[in-house]
Design brief:
- It is a single chain.
- The protein has about 190 residues and is an alpha+beta fold.
- The protein has two domains: about 1-95, Archaeosine Trna-guanine Transglycosylase, Chain: A, domain 4; about 110-175, no CATH class.
- About 35% of the residues lie in helices and about 30% in strands.
- The chain has six helices and five strands; from the N terminus they run E-H-E-E-E-E-H-H-H-H-H.
- The protein has helices spanning about 10-15, 110-130, 135-155, 160-165, 165-175, 180; strands at about 1-5, 20-25, 35-50, 55-75, 90-95.
- A five-stranded mixed sheet has the order 1-3-4-5-2, with helices on one face.
- Strand 3 and strand 4 (about 55-75) form a beta hairpin.
- Helix 2 (about 110-130) packs antiparallel against helix 3.
- The longest helix is centred in the C-terminal third of the chain and has 21 residues, at about 135-155.
């Protein structure tokens, strides 16, 4: 089943960027694992602030943006040991990762894929040397795509890579950088 639900902009953005992987909803529609939620962004316009600083809202409307998410888990309220009230549910949203479409590497050897990485690396460096930031960004992503292609040759899919990405982000946040290691030496 598909269910259309309203969602406020701040929550829409969090679902869209992957930081919010659940929906907390009234359990009044018979949600099941595998159902699809069509989350439609719903916003209010700020009309004015009162002399006491209160905000008055009006003109509720759909923004036109929506996102589809599959329910992967359901925690229903009212279960012993669960602090969620009866009649409410936490719906887990399926993680989708990166989907690479129309890329067939079956006729490409590992040597050819490594050569592709070297070619993309050269184009990336050239764009940096030319101070062409738009092209450097494009070449950066081409370089990532070429490296993902090499990992695919070893049976490591983009989905597997993205499932590990959060660990890498934590590593970056918590790793002290030793500046002297990267300083140029005379």
């Amino acid at each position: 089943m598909e269910y259309e639900l309203k969602i406020l902009p701040q929550y829409f953005k969090a679902v869209q960027d992957g930081s919010k992987t659940f929906e907390f909803r009234k359990d009044d529609r018979g949600f099941e694992i595998g159902d699809t939620l069509i989350l439609k962004e719903w916003d209010y316009d700020l009309i004015y602030k009162t002399e006491y600083g209160e905000e008055k809202w009006g003109n509720p409307h759909y923004t036109g943006r929506s996102i589809k998410k599959e329910i992967s888990y359901i925690l229903r309220g009212g279960i012993p040991g669960c602090r969620v009230r009866k009649g409410l549910a936490i719906l887990g949203l399926k993680y989708e990762g990166i989907k690479l479409n129309n890329i067939d590497l079956s006729n490409i050897s590992m040597v050819q894929q490594v050569q592709k990485i070297q070619e993309e690396d050269g184009e990336f460096i050239e764009a940096l040397e030319n101070s062409d930031s738009d092209n450097a960004i494009e070449e950066f992503f081409d370089l990532i795509q070429a490296r993902i292609g090499l990992l695919q040759k070893f049976g490591i899919s983009a989905e597997i890579i993205m499932s590990k990405y959060h660990k890498h982000l934590e590593k970056i946040k918590n790793r002290p950088r030793k500046e002297d290691k990267y300083e140029q030496r005379d």
